[in-house]
Design a protein that fits this description.
This protein has 255 residues and is of the alpha/beta class. It has helices at 3-36, 54-63, 73-82, 101-107, 117-130, 156-161, 184-204, 222-227, 237-240, and strands at residues 44-47, 67-70, 89-92, 110-114, 134-140, 169-176, 213-215, 232-235.
Length: 255
Amino acid sequence: MNQETAVEFNVEQQLTDIKNNLATVKQRIIDTCKKIGRDPASVRLLPVTKTVPAERLRIAFAAGCHEMGENKIQEAREKSEALADLDIKWSIIGHLQTNKAKYLARFANEFQALDSLKVAAELDKRLQNEGRAIDVYVQVNSSGEESKFGLPPEAVRDFVQHLPQFSSLRIKGLMTLAIFSSDHDRVRECFVKMRDIQAMLRQEAPAGLSFDELSMGMSGDYELAIEEGATVVRVGQAIFGKRPLPDSHYWPGLG
């Protein structure tokens, strides 16, 4: 096998692997929804592509991944530029510093980690400069771990009262990272807490804000999340395989 043939074989193998992994995850979503009487179409799969190189994301796009979630804004920005010829919807799912809002405003379709009014104001300003608006989720620290970003649950009600002033932020729902634990009961508690907050906001949030979406659940717990009402599950390793560094490098609080 010559080098060119070997490269083609590798691309084909990666394409097959990603397609198979996607099919497995989608089937598990369907099975979980059927078990609890939910419509599988009510759950959106967001492939998480952090650390996956751009050339592999071209293969993933061919396999059907047309939305991609990135944790770090610089990595997302570089990939969006490298893959600008593809119609990819980019979701930023990690903490955003105010000085990076200008980059997010230029290319992202969605921001799932809003937990600061300062960031909201800066992002809104930058989006208006770009003539754009994006979907936004409020991040909640449902596990109570100090190492994690997100609003404390008790602060969410007051926080959302300020959001109508930011006209370029289309508030769609809530996002959380559950506790990283093999104890399913402890993980489920985080998701139940989010469902309760969502119910409260549907009654009390200012007009014009929507909290119909719940982004929760990753490769290790997305089925539990679906059982408790997740409408978006963020799945990376179950699609792309293990990352080169531990999750604690990307998600504060995970060991």
